[in-house]
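Supplementary Note 2. Why include the ligand at all?

Several targets in our set were suspected to adopt different conformations when bound, so apo predictions alone were not considered sufficient. For every target with a known small-molecule partner we therefore ran a joint prediction. The input for KE4 is given below.
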Amino acid sequence: MDRGLNKQLFDRARECIPGGVNSPVRAFKAVGGVPLFIEKGKGAKIYDVAGKGYIDYCMSWGALILGHAHPEVIERVREAVGKGTSFGAPTKLETELVEEIRRAFPSMEMVRLVNSGTEACMSAIRLARGYTRRTKVVKFSGAYHGHADYLLVQAGSGATTLARPDSAGVPADFTRHTFVLPYNNLEMAEEVVKKQHESIACIIVEPISGNMGVVKAKEEFLRGLREICHRYGIVLIFDEVITGFRVSYGGAQEIYGVKPDLTCLGKIIGGGFPIGAFGGKREIMENLAPRGAVYQAGTLSGNPVSVTAGLATLRILSREKAYSILKKRAERLVQGIREHIGKLEIDALVNQAGSMFTVFFTREKEVCDYETALRSNTEHYARFFHQMLAEGVYFPPSQFEASFVSLAHGEEDIEKTIGVSLVALERLKN
Ligand code: KE4
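The joint prediction is reproduced in token form.
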């Protein structure tokens, strides 16, 4: 594989961009080696600057559920760009996207559009604090809700990958209002909330986590959180930045049948352009400026190009039998990899939720929380990653991330990936 060009670009980038990347997990620190510099993407594939193609299961960290450069999305965006790219004024498009989000997520009676998942989560928490006039936030270890200071506490995703769950530059007193509790442990949550409920504004949870690798919440855990939040007037926030429109058109809340007070979205609703959204109960959302006293703003919020790409994406998802196709493809892929793991007697398992999955290299019988996820063998994951990469398959460059199947992944891509995984696992065995 010609890594020369990628290496040259990486060295050049590191001269002027910290770590050579604009988001840490892209730097391949968790798996070692030189990151690919991507020239283009089309359908299920990305192509690096050396012209080599890879079947992509990172899919811009879950944003590209239709695959790269979907012709219909590109066409809509081309039309939109020709009319201007940003107005800093309301457009009908923003209302149309919010109406579509509301149709998919009935719990989101009102929605505010922002520019990232971080902004969505940060703003939802400020709103919950303003609405309840309380200060404390409960999050769960291994969950990642973006890089707001007080959330970088035992965060998952890149923070775990860097093996420094807490970030430098975050003063200790910025996190003293943040409780971090074990994921999927309802008893602990009930115990803490019972004692501290008068000061707790919100509980934020990934209903299916993608940031410790894929780990599903137990149904009784989510139902229990819903019940204690009702009981104590705490705002329940579902962070569905990954799972929104991913695991079903109505997200994880549709699958579990648990209705949060606020929901955070991102990724898919921008169709590959910068976007985020948060929304929920009208009585809470109406506390947002300019109607209410909780301030939140953004120059490019509701950007017409991002919104156009998002609307086109959602319309395609709601039009085609998207979720049955996605589920079928992902189930075949996971079944194939599980068969190879079993046959070769490799210490590994695969967690799957719809079209997202993670291959954990572990002796654990199940990975159901952060503690068990952290016992994965990240060195084995790294070797698996590079073996797959050498054979033209690009998984996320970290054990603590999710892999994603898109509508562009055809049966041929899936079968090829299963075949390549056998080679990669065999080499791991030897
Ligand atoms: P962004 O600010 O990166 O758009 O979204 C933050 C965020 C919030 N909530 C969840 C559940 C998320 O997964 C994310 C961001 N996801 C990571 C990957 N797990 C983004 C990749 C990166 O940081 O480069």
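The first strand starts at residue 38 and ends at 42. The CA atoms of residues 264 and 278 lie 4 Å apart. Comparable summaries for the other entries are listed in the accompanying table.
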